[in-house]
DNA sequence: CTTGAAGTTGAACTCAGGTTCATGTTTGTG
DNA sequence: CACAAACATGAACCTGAGTTCAACTTCAAG
């Protein structure tokens, strides 16, 4: 008999962990392609090569699986970004590395990218959590750079959301919509922009 | 008997137009609150104070109604923004006015804001159209300012998406998440940021 | 070898919601 | 007033999908 409990109260063996992961991987694919509501558990279990009933051994329901995916993604992305940024010294290099790492992550996990965007309508809490944690970490880094005098004194949170928005939209445009050959140039442009603004003197040089 | 056709091949009387609009208005509410899939036509017709069957007199199906809503929203927003921007002379004032108008629009049409974000998973074409048209108009304006020497020479498209991303995320944070009292300050911060960048000298003045 | 916990299965149950349609009502025109 | 087109209705049909469950298999420990 099945007795799932919150998430996986049951003790999992390596075999169980493997099956569970298969379901998570399949869900990443299916949710990413079709969206939460349009995805059926039947398709997820098929792609995971397990029977329908197996699903409920490892997850309470469709919703719980989705929430776990989003949370997992958030953690992975934050870790990826913080690692990428740590290797850099100047704030600008940190930003460049952060953008690059984000785009690379997005390219590798296109489906997860789309999954997060849906979280807004599936589970408000996990969606808020995702963006707030990301923004908080970002703002902390910015604040430190401001206090060191490397950046002007802005509200770190406002700037964090602004920069996240830039990354999100450029990712949408140049990663999701498939024009990777333009990505590198876009990163250069945008780093110059965030460094010196739209009136960047560097960008005015060519004028007569 | 009903015979809908693509959209509304049937000649509508003023009574018909009124009912149709009631359905659109109700759909805006319901889709915005629950998302496309989770919204039922039954709820939409209830809120519109019409019978279930009436829905199919005016719309081919649920999907068609959604697509029309998104397209309608896109048009309204573009018109709103272009009007707001036209009143300004300098590029920076145009940007400020554009941001303000966008946030105001988002505040008035929170549901529509959420609807657009879902279009990605409901109808790829209408979603691409929405962002591409917006970006194209934005880029045209930026390009003109660059050619006049008011801005540095960037790729207008890259900057357009970057600025759209900023607006989208700040709207999410300070309009959707309900902290309107911080909005005005956020706009000031972000205009300063896009004007002179993160190292804005104006923002460094206070340092010893 | 025994035993029980962990794992697996897929048919069957339920039910919600999109769509259809036959019927009845309203409205404007000649 | 008559007639047709437009409008409105909601019960009924139908399909798909989430979830349950009782029976079966695998596996490791003792």
Radius of gyration of chain A (Å): 20 Å
- DSSP strand (E) fraction of chain A? under 5%
Largest interface: A-B, 56 and 56 residues
Q: Helical percent range of chain A?
A: over 70%
Oligomerization status of the protein chains: homodimer
Number of strand elements of chain A: 0
Largest sheet of chain A: none
Mean pLDDT of chain A, rounded to whole units?
92
Structural class of chain A: mainly alpha
Report how far apart the termini of chain A are.
80 Å
SS element count, helices of chain A: 9
Q: Outline of chain A, from the CA principal axes? A: elongated
Task: Tell me about this structure.
Two copies of one chain form a homodimer. The first copy, chain A, is an all-alpha fold. Chain A has helices at 14-34, 41-47, 52-58, 62-86, 91-108, 110-122, 124-147, 156-176, 183-196. In chain A, helix 4 crosses helix 6, helix 5 packs across helix 6 and helix 7 crosses helix 8. The longest helix of chain A is centred in the middle third of the chain and has 25 residues, at 62-86. Chain A is elongated. The first copy, chain A, starts with 13 loop residues before the first helix and ends in a 12-residue tail after the last helix. Chains A and B meet through helix 6, helix 7, helix 8 and helix 9 of A and helix 6, helix 7, helix 8 and helix 9 of B. Chain A binds a DNA duplex (30 and 30 nucleotides) through helix 1 and helix 3.
């Amino acid at each position: 008999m099945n007795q799932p409990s919150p998430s996986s109260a049951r003790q999992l063996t390596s075999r169980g962990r493997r099956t569970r992961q298969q379901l998570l991987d399949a869900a990443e694919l299916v949710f990413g392609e079709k969206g939460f509501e349009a995805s059926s558990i039947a398709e997820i279990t098929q792609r995971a090569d397990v029977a329908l009933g197996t699903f409920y051994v490892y997850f309470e329901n469709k919703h719980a699986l989705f929430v776990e995916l989003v949370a997992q993604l958030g953690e992975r992305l934050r870790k990826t970004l913080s690692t990428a940024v740590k290797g850099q010294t100047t704030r600008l290099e940190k930003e460049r590395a952060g953008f690059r790492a984000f785009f690379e992550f997005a390219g590798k996990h296109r489906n997860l990218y789309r999954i997060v965007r849906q979280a807004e309508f599936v589970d408000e809490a996990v969606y808020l959590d995702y963006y707030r944690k990301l923004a908080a970490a970002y703002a902390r880094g910015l604040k430190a750079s401001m206090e060191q005098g490397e950046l002007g004194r802005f509200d770190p949170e406002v700037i964090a959301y602004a920069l996240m928005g830039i990354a999100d939209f450029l990712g949408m445009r140049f990663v999701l919509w498939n024009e990777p050959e333009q990505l590198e140039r876009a990163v250069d442009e945008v780093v110059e922009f965030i460094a010196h603004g739209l009136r960047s003197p560097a960008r005015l040089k060519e004028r007569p």
